[in-house]
Write the structure tokens for this entry.
Amino acid sequence: MITRFVKLTIKVDQIVAFQKAFSERNKVIESFQGCQKVELLQDVNDKRVFFTFSEWNKEDDLENYRNSDFFQDTWSTVKPMFDGKPEAWSLNVL
């Protein structure tokens, strides 16, 4: 099992649009082979900071998603909303 965290800082005026984009796409992400779940978390102190949390059966499943046309389309939609460089971690569940 792979757990993936991605930290995204969003421009203040884009927060609502970012949340909408996530809600429109998360079920499609969850339908990808090997994806167990996807969640969006927001920092309690800095409303611009979000984390996506996802669980994947194996690293190949995550990579297949990351190499998909759907991911490329999603990334091109949300990237202009960023107010900083994204950070990502892939972790093994022990």
